[in-house]
Amino acid sequence: DIQLTQSPSFLSASVGDRVSITCRASQGISRYLAWYQQKPGKAPKVLIYGASTLQSGVPSRFSGSGSGTEFTLTVSNLQPEDFATYYCQHLYSYPLTFGGGTTVEI
Amino acid sequence: EEQLLESGGGLVQPGGSLRLSCAASGFNFRTYAMSWVRQAPGRGLEWVSVFGGKSETTHYADSVKGRFTISRDNSKNTLYLQMDSLRAEDTAMYYCARVQPTAVGAFDLWGLGTMVTVSS
Known about the structure:
Chain A is mainly β. Chain A is 0% helix and 48% strand. Chain A is built from no helices and 11 strands. Chain A has strands at residues 4-7, 10-12, 19-25, 33-38, 45-49, 53-54, 62-67, 70-75, 85-90, 97-98, 102-105. In chain A, a hairpin with a 6-residue loop joins strand 9 (85-90) and strand 10. Chain A starts with a strand and ends with a strand. The mean pLDDT of chain A is 97. Chain B is mainly beta. In chain B, strands 2, 4, 5, 6, 9, 10 and 11 form a 7-stranded mixed sheet that branches. Chain B has a 4-stranded antiparallel sheet with strand order 1-3-8-7, with no helix packed on it. In chain B, a hairpin with a 6-residue loop joins strand 5 and strand 6 (58-60). At the A-B interface, strand 4, strand 5 and strand 10 of A face strand 5 and strand 10 of B.
């Protein structure tokens, strides 16, 4: 099974900051990676798919990069509504897995 | 409006069974693969199972294989998850999610979730 390791687990930031979250896969997954945002008590929401394609309706301050085993989610000009938990997910083969999550807090 | 609505959660004793439903609306349900994802209280997301669209193939996480069965009724636009031999560690919010029909995929539509509690 493919394992996804996110870092950091927690990230303290301020409005206007640029933050980056890393997701490392235990084996190559090409670009079969998605990023999600989840707020407390809510369902996750997809931000990025195919490692770098922005989902329709998602602000352009979110961006994704990487391929193979290392991926990055970057949020530029952090806004108050961006304080949430972020998860990566691979869709390369079954079983699908999610990373452990990164909580971005003030 | 595209929407997924889960139901069927509740309190069940260890060893018991429960069937979750996910009613879809606002899109051509039969053409999409659909999945279940769960989240234990205070924990991260865990993929549970998927039912293909046209392929009708199914896959499961090792943690539920042999105990859970995913199915769908396209005439009712509904996805199901039959959960048997439930354990305390199955306690979680269960979400259904639509699989985006792109080459690389993603879960692009999620329901609000239904809570399953396994406890005596």
